[in-house]
Amino acid sequence: MSSKLFTSAKIGTMELSNRLVRSATQDPFGQPDGTACQAQIDLHADIAESGVPLIITAYTYVSPEGRATDIQVGFCNETHYESQKKVVEAVHAKGGRIALQINHAGQNVYFTPDLPDPTPLAPSGDKKAPNGLMTREITVEDMDRLCKDYVAAAVKGKELGFDAVQLHCAHGYLLNQFMDPNYNQREDEFGGSAENRFRFVRQILLALREALGADYPILVKVNSNCAGEADAAYAEDIVYFCREFEALGVDAIELSGFDWIAQGKQKNHNYYLERAKAVRAAVNIPIIFVGGVRTQEDIDAVLDAGMDFISLSRPFIAQPDLIEHLKAGEDAKCISCSKCFVLWEREGRRCVLHDKPEA
Ligand SMILES: Cc1cc2nc3c(=O)[nH]c(=O)nc-3n(C[C@H](O)[C@H](O)[C@H](O)COP(=O)(O)O)c2cc1C
Known about the structure:
It is a single chain. By secondary structure, this protein is of the alpha/beta class. The chain has one domain: Aldolase class I (TIM Barrel). The protein has 12 helices and 13 strands. It has helices at 38-50, 78-93, 140-160, 174-179, 194-212, 231-247, 260-265, 273-280, 296-304, 314-318, 322-327, 343-347, and strands at residues 9-11, 14-16, 20-22, 54-56, 60-61, 97-103, 121-122, 136-137, 164-169, 218-223, 252-256, 287-290, 309-312. The model has no long low-confidence stretch (mean pLDDT 96). Residues 23-27, 58-59, 101, 168, 170-171, 221, 256, 260, 264, 290-293, 312-315, 338, 340-341 line the site of flavin mononucleotide (FMN).
């Protein structure tokens, strides 16, 4: 067992008792009205009670049209706020801390939200969204409105007792779409160079810091890579983005990537460690490493490379009491099959390693 894993460390003003984070996870699924089901609330409490010092919520949508799926929890109306308050209280009652992940799906909406105008918004227009509708290019006025939505969610989160906010800039959603040249084909000052592709994210981070105050922890989750040929240049872009995050007062960067599902199916581990090392050399703020950490050896490799925290998602689905197993020197049992995306709905169980519920 890594000697560093169970030592304390800080993210901004937050002192955390060890280096484990539960990465943002929709587990189990949210309800059609965008609230968390009781099983989700209970699971957060169990993970907190087990000794994981920081849990990041599932991605919550900050604007009704930014909802990615019908099982996604939201954070843009009173019903959502009441529901998430229960999540916060459940985690705090067990001595844990919780960060609110805020998101807008952009073009990656997988269903059609019930809205007068469900047109997906995206950095670039005329793209086919997963729900079959064509995107409309986001205007500067849209950006101002969306920025306000992100800020309103974060401020409300702080008011409800969330210990931190995490701005979701990863996994193909709106802010990642701006940063990733495969999505962003704009010809104005929001497209082209890395600086331009970062401009909208910068606007939001400046507004978040101003609204939340100097001491409130702001985290970001970002892709360390992108698909195809563009990835060669993106290797430099990600270092630039992370330096900018630090300059803008971000308290910790969670480094993920676009292809974590495929990487898991190929049975790879520590998917993004080489990219993370390049970022480590460039910034001083804490790095939270996520993606394919499964064995004690993986944990050592990540911490020995200078990463501050280890974030896991699917291993906590398989074993909510994972921390006990890690303490005992065991590896995580998760096989990264990602069937957890569909099992709850289809079979009422969350992981292939769990028993099927009795009929
Ligand atoms: C069922 C499920 C739901 C997820 N939901 C989110 C989410 O809401 N926000 C997010 O940033 N990542 C989400 N992820 C991705 C994880 O946070 C993490 O980045 C990814 O699973 C890789 O980590 P792992 O190898 O430890 O599972 C989800 C993953 C799974 C399996």
